Amino acid sequence: MSTFLRLGIAPLGLLLLASPALAATGNTATATGTANATVIAPLQIIHAPGAAINFGAFTAGTGGTVSVSQAGTASVTGDVGLVTGGTVTADAFTVLGSGSRTFTIATSTGNTVRTSGPTPATMALALSVPATGTLSAAGSFALRVGGTLTVAAGQAAGAYTGSYTVTVTYQ
């Protein structure tokens, strides 16, 4: 009998080990999810050929400021005097990207304009831009940059130039 039990039980044990485990109904469920993504056009900023902030011609007097608005209108404070015949313009850029998207606008700080030569004269340049912009449905935005020069008393006469950066970032 002990041989029968060993031989009879052993195949039964193997049969139980080899059979698949069956889950009870309702213990498992499966569903399918959805994944979406939208790739948008990268932002681009293009400087208009020949454009610049032009502060026109002015006298320094005892100092003050000369400003150009984003609309291209000049104004002065202190003893600075605008002289007729000077060209006054705001700088111009075009921002391109994905239509109807909002973006932030930032400019470099610590900007100056200076004369050329071994001992250049400088003036501080503060820039004026909107904090944000929204691209048109077609994906463009006309950005105008104004600014203010701080003019010292007796500021040296001459032609001053400088540069700055503008950065746009999607929100």
Task: Summarize the structure in short.
This protein is mainly beta and 171 residues long. The chain is 10% helix and 42% strand. It has one helix spanning 2-18; strands at residues 44-47, 54-59, 64-68, 74-78, 81-89, 91-96, 102-107, 111-114, 122-128, 132-134, 140-151, 166-170.
Describe the structure.
This protein is mainly beta and 171 residues long. The protein has one domain (44-170). The chain has one helix at 2-18, and strands at residues 44-47, 54-59, 64-68, 74-78, 81-89, 91-96, 102-107, 111-114, 122-128, 132-134, 140-151, 166-170. A hairpin with a 5-residue loop joins strand 3 (64-68) and strand 4 (74-78). The longest helix has 17 residues, at 2-18. The protein is elongated. The model has no long low-confidence stretch (mean pLDDT 91). This is DUF4402 domain-containing protein. InterPro entries: DUF4402. Residues 1-23 form the signal peptide.
Produce the secondary structure layout:
Elements: H1 2-18, E1 44-47, E2 54-59, E3 64-68, E4 74-78, E5 81-89, E6 91-96, E7 102-107, E8 111-114, E9 122-128, E10 132-134, E11 140-151, E12 166-170
Antiparallel strand pairs: 1-6, 2-5, 3-4, 3-11, 6-11, 7-10, 7-12, 8-9, 9-11
